[in-house]
Each structure stands twice: as C-alpha cells, then as structure tokens.
Description:
The chain has three helices and four strands. By secondary structure, the chain is α+β, with helices and mostly antiparallel strands. Strands 2-3-1-4 form a four-stranded antiparallel sheet. The radius of gyration is 14 Å and the shape is globular.
Amino acid sequence: xxxxxVFFEIKPEQVEAFRAAMVGQAKRxxxxxxxxxxxxxxxxxxxxTSFFLYEVYDDEAAFEAHKASSHFADFGPxxxxxxxxxxxxxxxxxxxRPRTN
Length: 101
C-alpha cells in the first residue's frame, strides 16, 4: 500500500471553509477512486489552522490516478488561496491492518 500524508496550515479566516471542502473532497475520492482505500481528514483541536491528511492507495499508480482525476483538478483552485503552507510526504505501508467483521 502507498501512504500519503499531507500537513496543511490554513489561513485563520478560511478554516471553516477549508474543513468543509476537504471533508467533501475525501468523500469524493473514496467514492470515485477504486484505488483509494482510506482518506482521513484531521484537525488539531489546539491549533485549528493545522490539518493532517492520511491517505492510503493500492499503489503509487493509484495515487497518480488520484492526482489526474477531475475532482482533484477542480479542488485545487478552490482552496489554493486558503493555504498558508503545505507539506506532502509518502510512505510504503509495511504492516496490514487487522480486519474487522
């Protein structure tokens, strides 16, 4: 599995709009991308301008398909002016999650 972690610092006046937009984007990715297995959006309760995304894809090709999707292309221009900083890192997951019934 291919893991993508993104750290965002959002301009204070845009926090609510960013959170709503990002939660919607995560939902679209999970619904429309067969290779997207997990897309979690988290916000720091002590520093509300700080967000953390945890995304899991089947492989790097699935992540590239994510970046090529129309909903990804449409999303960037909406949020670009709301972002103060962004850092993206990738990993390969080496352990499997236990299955729940």
